[in-house]
Amino acid sequence: MRWLGLHLRARRVPMAAAVVVGVIALIWVSWPVFSDGQTINTRMISVTVMLAVVAIGTTLSGADDALDHTAAVSWPTRRAAHLLLCAAAVIGLLLVTTLTDARFEPLGVVARNTAGLLGLTALGAVLLGATLSWIAPLVWTIFAIMPWMGPSEQLRMQVSAWLIQPAETTAATVCATALALAGLVAYTVRGCPLRPAAETMPNR
């Protein structure tokens, strides 16, 4: 199991996991203090998931890009497993709160937003690299939670603000699913782009 520990450390997984748990715990604990209701609303679910996937984005590449693309290891399988396990971990942590008074729900919104934003993060990692994978989920989330955005019967609003639509909104679900699948496939097949050698060399 030594190789697993080294792999997780090389991808900064322990630090990212601590951030994800800390963010979820902080919002869960503080919600009853600043809100009259116990159910955490869709906007705050979106912000929580966004912060979680931004932390996860840093784990989508290792310290050695060449190693991440070597044919000696089945990297596509590992990349797919990594992404799926991250999604399961975030959803699982959010669902644990349903055992308490303050809770992230409904499940449909939690699962949809996690899948969609993580897929968007993976797409960002494929196109821009893991260090810049946070841009797309951050920008889309900020746009979606603006005060003038909200649940709507207009298709363009359901797609552009899919993060804050009700769980039963078909267009929002389709948009999130498309992002999730596109991110999973692209990251599984291609991984992150190779960085210049100077960026991956250890400091002397």
Q: In short, what is this structure?
A:
The protein is mostly helical and 204 residues long. It contains ten helices and two strands; from the N terminus they run ααβαααβααααα.
Search tags:
10 helices; globular; 204 residues; two-stranded parallel sheet
Q: Mind sketching the topology for me?
A:
Elements (H helix, E strand, L loop, with lengths): L1 H9 L2 H22 L4 E2 L1 H16 L7 H4 L6 H22 L6 E2 L2 H22 L6 H10 L10 H6 L9 H21 L6 H4 L4
Parallel strand pairs: 1-2
Please provide a written account of the structure.
Helix content is 67%, strand content 2%. With 204 residues, it is mainly α. The protein has a two-stranded parallel sheet. The radius of gyration is 18 Å and the shape is globular. The model has no long low-confidence stretch (mean pLDDT 89).
What is the N-to-C order of secondary-structure elements (H for helix, E for strand)? HHEHHHEHHHHH
Number of strands: 2
What profile does the largest beta sheet have? 2 strands, parallel
> How many distinct helices?
10
- How much helix, percentage-wise, in residues? 55-70%
Backbone CA Rg? 18 Å
Give the overall silhouette: globular
Instruction: Give the structural class.
Output: mainly alpha
Mean of residue pLDDT values = 89
- Low-pLDDT ranges: none
Q: Largest beta sheet: what is the strand line-up?
A: 1-2
Distance from first to last alpha carbon: 30 Å
Approximately what portion of the residues adopt beta-strand conformation?
A: under 5%
